[in-house]
Amino acid sequence: MVRLIVTDIDGTLVPEGGSRVNPEYMTVIRELTDLGVRFAAASGRQASSIDVIFHELRDRIYYLGDNGACIQKNGQMVRGMYMEEADLLALLKELREMPGQRLLLSVEEGYYTDDRDEDFHRLVFEEYKGMGKVVEHVEDYADACIKLSLYCEEGARGIYDLLYDRWKDRFTIYVSGARWVDINGLGVTKGEAVRWLQERYEIKPEETVVFGDNYNDISMMRRAVRSYASELSHPDIRQAAGNVVESYEKDGVLKVLKQILKEVRNEK
Fold first, then answer.
1. Which domains are delineated in the chain?
2. What are residue 111's phi and psi, to 5 degrees?
3. Residue 238: pLDDT above 90?
4. How high is the mean pLDDT of the chain?
5. Closest CA to 241 of 202, 195, 191
6. HEC states along 33-66?
7. Looking at residues 238-254, what average pLDDT do you find?
8. pLDDT higher than threshold 90 for residue 64
9. ∠ at Cα 45 (41, 51), nearest 5°?
């Protein structure tokens, strides 16, 4: 029987940066949790941005924010994985000399950026609806950092390629969207967060269902026997998942959740 469901958000439930889902998601997830199924939203987003979508269920579900670095339930952090301050400061120094990206630091409370571009501020604080503020120097908050994100207007892949080989031994680095590169502490992944939930509740991979669409979702797909990739995702992601779900435009995840709800009811 399915006992744990984990879904990515951007590109899976909503278009990148979106914050509105079909209200029926809330009804179906509520019914699943009433039947004892654990549910988690796993995202590169900070927890405050996840909460914009799932606020009415925040006492029922887990937020695996910042690629699993921050696990929250009902507004309380139950697990945090912080970045190594000295390594992060060294990386930030290099990034200051690298054009083509904008810095966004995640801490438990929200997002910090010292970038002065107002369009970037609108993207982060209005479209993604994340809590946080513009600060003088993000380096001042390096000791509390959970994740560093780079917004790359010309596309994420080029910046990723410049950073990966140099920093892969000190950080986990992902392309997490068309214009986003996410950087976490070494070993921090969505899959590690899913593993933590599975161990906490003694849930097996064959009792787990996962939905995703990007490279930072592959690690959690490996924690589930049954996983789904959006039909819009890269072929690598679809291969990792094994199953394909219709896009967010067609409420593909919702359709599968309804099927799982029927399965759970029948097994009860």
1. 4-80+188-267 (3.40.50.1000), 85-185 (3.30.1240.10)
2. -100, 145
3. yes
4. 96
5. 191
6. HHCCCEEEEECCCCHHHHHHHHHHHCCCCEEEEH
7. 96
8. yes
9. 55
